[in-house]
Amino acid sequence: MASKISRYISAWLSSCLLLLMVASPLLASPSGEVNGFVSEARRPRPASTVDGLPFATASTDTTVVVLDSTTVADAAEAVAEILGKKPEKKVHFINGFGVGADLVGLIQKIAGSDWSQMEVLARMNIKERFFPVFELGLGEADHEGRDLDNRFHVRAPYFRVGCDYNIRAKHVDGNRLFVGLRYGFSFYNYDLTSPTPIKDPVWGTEQPFDLEGLSGSAHWGEVVIGLETRLWSIIRLGWDVRFKLLIGQKADEVGEPWYLPGLGKRPDGIGWGGTFKIMFDI
Q: What pTM does this model have?
């Protein structure tokens, strides 16, 4: 009987000791104490010495991996490159500005055309979708008539305002497909001259034909369709085709101008044009 009681007491003590050993890490305080006792796993180890110099030793069973935002971004980009997909770039509301110049007028001038127009532009990039634009140019013409011995000369600025819409706004890959509208206007003075005087058919007298400083103005609309691509870094190249519609024109009663700055050779209500421009995105 006594032996049975001793076995029961021994089994009960063993169970309690095992339970205490399992529960002690869960009940440990941050300082490593468990009900007044210091956990062996957290007990500081004595300092050791190397060549007489003390140093602390410690051990851990846990491996900690620290990842910052840069590491995660680099890893995502690497995975996207392996899969053949480029990560989408973040597009802000104001996504930058751009300036540029049209090269067609420069080519016309070098080629010796009797009319040309030098043009620069500035625009804003709104969410890679809308591009409000302002265009400023200088149009000039020096034309000699074929049937009559007369000359037409004009040199005046012109302005256009409008907006382009990027159809490929969801694909921020450097390529853009535009459709847009423009409103253009110009105020100018032009000259009509002739080296040959006009002869009066009744009296036979001659009058010089030299009319200078005739004033005029015009305004028109344009529908624009164009393409643009990134050449390198912030440098872009693009071209467009423009359908032009003359809205209104004022000219001297002596005669209408042969060329309208910004619009081109005077159309009969409608006309066509285009640009080939180099752009710099800021």
A: 0.65
